[in-house]
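task queued by scheduler; priority normal; single chain, no ligands, no partner chains; default sampling; output format set to structure tokens
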Amino acid sequence: MNALQAILIAILQGATELFPVSSLGHAVILPALMRSGINQMSAEFLPFLVFLHLGTAIALLSYFWRDWWMLFLGVLGMADKIMVEESRKVFLKIVIATIPAVIIGFLLEKFVRGLFGTPIVAAAFLVVNGLLLLFGERLRNRGHRELPTLTTMDALCIGLWQCTALIPGISRSGATIVGGVLRGITHEGAAHFSFLIATPIILGATVLEVPKLLHETVPPGTFVLAAVAAVVSGITAWLSTWFLMRYFRDHDDWALSPFAAYCIVAGLGSLAILVL
């Protein structure tokens, strides 16, 4: 992998991880379309996988640092009584929303990705992702509940929606935002919670890959290139989060529709190219 390829992959990861268009789906489809020859299962690519996820997680932590700092103080009881109670409630909801993906991901991730992880199938599920976003927008509960009104049942439903992202082509952020708006949460509130619960998921995926990385022999210079890619991915992810939070705030009536259209067109176009 050369430097240009590494930077392009980093930009793709940083953007598609947060935009509701499926980073995993793009990672499966694009190499097949471009005939890049990059083997994402190789030992050479593993450092990039770890560093790219780390860069994205750091970007999310830095963007929402006030939320995490308040949660940290509140959970440890290092704040006033009201803040402690509220922080512990929010923390509990983050845990509840994360548990389904952790359990199902641990049990079924290899099976699901092995079953659905081919470019043609990923392209088909990218179309499904677009339809999911479109129908979610049409069927949403037209309430205007903000993030603080999130209930335990809301968090559990969003967590279950997150599990669908194990399938390449289905977006984690898209599924969780749809889960939120179907419960009557605003797009901005649903996106905020989606990005909060993304942080432990992405960090967890990074940690799980580290033991494999320690036992692999990688070509010289790979870690330097991976570190550069991590910085690029982190900057892209931070800018993506900044854009999306404002976008969802200002377009609450139809925010998911453009992403739905993109996924349907991109998925169908990729299917046509891959089949022909």
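post-processing summary
- The mean pLDDT is 87.
- The chain has one domain: 3-33+40-275.
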